[in-house]
Amino acid sequence: MTPFRLEPARLREAVVPTLPPGAAEPDDAAVAARFAAGAWTVLPEPGDGAAGIVRERLGAVRALQLLVEGASAADWGRELDDAEDRRAVADALGRWQPRLAAERILAAFAQGAAFGQRLVTRDDAHWPAGLDDLGPHAPAAVWVRGDPAALSACARSAALVGSRASSGYGELVTAQLASGLVARGFAVVSGGAYGIDGAAHRAALAAGGTTVAVLAGGLDRFYPAGHDELLRRVASSGCVIAEAPSGVPPTRWRFLARNRLIAALASATVVVEAGQRSGSINTAGHAAALGRPLGAVPGPVTSGSSTGCHRLLREYGAAVVERAEHVVELLDGPGEEQHALGGMTSDELRVLDALSARAPRGVDELAVRTGMARGDVVASLALLELGARALERASGWVRAAPQGSG
Fold it and tell me: In sequence order, what are the beta bridge partners of 102?
C-alpha cells in the first residue's frame, strides 16, 4: 500500500521536483519512502522523539500507513516491543492526527518545489551524518535551499553562534574566527539571525568559504526578513536548511529545537558573545550533550554581552577561544595547526618572525621580541635549526635563506 492510498503517479509528481541534484530516478518504493520522510517533517513538531521512535522501529512508510489507517494505541502497541515506546506513541497520536491530511503534505512538496527546495533524506549522498547523533530526536529529512552538497562540508565545520544584540567586539572576533576557519578548510555553520550569526555568515562568504544557515521556520520565507538578501547569498554559495516545511513560521520553541541541529551539524561549537539568557547557551548545551567540542570567547568582565560565555567557561568546561587555531585544536589537538603553519608550531613561527636575515639576535633579545620564556625560545630555535630555517652565528641567531635561493 502506498501512503494515503495515493496513486504512484501522484506521489511521483510531488516528490521528483524536490530530488537533490544528480539523484537517480527513484522507483516506486523509493518515491513512497521519500514522500513518507517529507510527511514526517509535516506531522510532528521538530524534535518529537516519539516520531523518531516509530520511524526507527517501523520505518517511515509503515509508521505513516498506521497513522493513515487510524490505528489505535493498541494496534501501535502490537507493532512496538518496548512498553515505554508504546506509551510515548499513545501520547503522541493526539499531536499528529490533527495535521494528518494528504493535501497538507502534498502542499509542502509543492511549495518546496516552487521555492527551489530539495528534500534531503538519510538515503541521500549528502545527508550530514552528524544529525544521526540526535537519535530519535533527529529530523526525518531536511529541506534545503541552495546546494545540498554543501552539507557534506559540515563533516569539518564549526558553529559560530551568539547574541543577536552583538557588540562591535563580538562581530570583529566572529569575522576573524570565520575567515580564519575558512582559510583552514572549515565550513561555518550558524543560525542566520542578526548579530553574531549574521557576522559569521558574512565573513565566511567574504573569505570565499562554505557556510550553512539553519532556520527555525519554513524556507518559503527567510527569517529574519532583514537578512533575506544575506540568506540568498548563503544559498547561492552554500545552503540554507530547515526541518520545517514551507508555510511553518518560526516560533520560540522552534528556535530552541533548531539549535540542536546547529550543534549536531557542526564538528565543534563556539559561542562568541552571549548574555546570560542567550539562545546560544541552549545550542552550547546541545553540543555538550552530544559530546561535541565546545569553546567560548571571553570578553570584558564588565560586559553583560559576555556573561553567557563566562558561564560556559566556568560551568561547562568550555575551552577558551581567541583565534581560529584554537578551534582547530578543539578538534585535532595542537598538531593540526603545525600542518597549517608549514610544519611549525606557533612558538616556532613567533621566533622565526622575530629573527632577522642579516642581524644576529641573541636568545634574550628574542625572548623580549616574542614575549616567550627564554627556555621556550631555545627549544624553538633548536627545532628551527633542524628544519634549516635558522642558523646560529657567533653573536646570535639569524633567519636562514630559503632553500633554492642560492
Answer: none
Average pLDDT over residues 187-210: 95
pLDDT above 50 for 10:
yes
Q: List all residues 6 or more positions away from 195 whose beta carbon is below 8 Å from its beta carbon.
A: 162, 163, 164, 165, 166, 170, 171, 273
Per-residue model confidence (pLDDT) at position 337? 46
Instruction: Identify the helix (H) or strand (E) that includes residue 144.
Output: strand 141-146
Helix 346-354 and helix 363-370, axial crossing angle in degrees, nearest 10? 110
Q: Report whether 133 contacts 127 (CB < 8 A).
A: no
What is the per-residue pLDDT for 343?
A: 60
Answer yes or no: are the C-beta atoms of 273 and 196 closer than 8 Å. yes
DSSP states of 74-134 as a string? Answer: HHHHHH---HHHHHHHHHHHHHHGGG--HHHHHHHHHHHHHTTEEEEETTSTT--GGGGGG
Cell 628544519 belongs to residue: 387
358: cell is: 642579516
> In this model, does residue 362 exceed pLDDT 90?
yes
Question: Model confidence over 59-83: pLDDT tens digits?
Answer: 999 999 999 988 888 888 888 888 8
Cα(153)–Cα(143) distance, integer angstroms? 17
- Cα separations in angstroms, 333 against 142, 283, 284, 338: 32, 23, 20, 10
Would you say residue 405 has pLDDT above 70?
no
Side chain identity, residue 40: W
**Helix/strand/coil percentages in the chain, nearest 5:** 55, 10, 30
Question: Around 404, how many Cα atoms within 13 Å sit in the side-chain half-sphere?
Answer: 0
Q: Which pLDDT band holds residue 2 (cuts at 50, 70, 90)?
A: low
All residues at 6 or more sequence positions from 348 whose CB lies less than 8 Å from its CB, including other chains: 341, 380, 383, 384, 389
DSSP string, 181-206: HHHTT-EEEE---TTHHHHHHHHHHH
* pLDDT confidence band for 350 (50 / 70 / 90): confident
Q: Which residue has the cell 616574542?
A: 370
